[in-house]
Fold this protein.
Amino acid sequence: MFSPEDLQKGLRSKHFGKKIYTFESIDSTNNCAKVLASCDAPHGTVVITEEQTAGRGRLGRSWLAQPGENLTFSIVLRPDVPVSELNLLPLFAAVSLAEAIEQTTGIEVDCKWPNDILTREKKLVGILLEGSFKSDEIESVVLGIGVNVNQTIFPEEIKDKATSLRLEGRRKFDRVSLLQDLLFSLEDSYIRYSRNGFQSVIPQWMLHTSMIEKRIEISQNGEIIAGEVRGISADGGLIIDSGGVEKAFFAGDVTIVG
Ligand code: BTN
């Protein structure tokens, strides 16, 4: 099991991981981090577990990860940004994780809007952001991250869609030092984007995606809209050209066609 002492030894981030809660098994690190956030846990508090019994993904899905082989953790953030910028936060997380993974492992990755990281079109990292609000202001955000690290066998339902660093890099990765690299990168870019405005993540995100000009389908509330990706709006929406009309989408499941 992860120990706070091991994780903090060699930690280069100042706030992310300064306070760290480790578990052998827990329902969901996001649930735990949300409770901690409501009890005034400081910015950068990390919750990490070896196993989640009810790991959650976007759109009501489950997050399945083999215990003891991956990274499943959440960070409490206290961003000083208006609610209108909330949709930019997943992009910041995806870009900084993508940069850290490429640098540490040498594996080239691809960001998929809004908050996935893929490699060779298979999912490597999932991100789930959940906010708490008080009188229309963001009180806290829980940034939940699942990285497939050393898992080599995936359950039937995701085996064609998921991959891991070990499968891609053909070697095992040290989860403690990887977590430390991810936390350092997240903190470093969080500070930069907080200072320059989270909109400055958009050009960086565009550098890390292959989605631009691709034909996609986005399903939203039972409706499927087809179009070509044009970019990201100033408030983090995916701009799609559908039949000559450009529109920004803020939620939904995206499938790249062809
Ligand atoms: C997705 O791809 O739909 C998002 C997956 C997010 C999974 C992580 S694992 C740690 C944290 N705790 C959860 O219950 N979910 C997130």
The first helix runs from residue 4 to 8. Residues 28-30, 52, 55-58, 61, 63, 72-74, 116, 126-128, 144-146 surround biotin (CB under 6 Å). The CA atoms of residues 154 and 167 lie 11 Å apart. The helical segments are 4-8, 29-38, 89-105, 165-169, 175-196, 201-207.
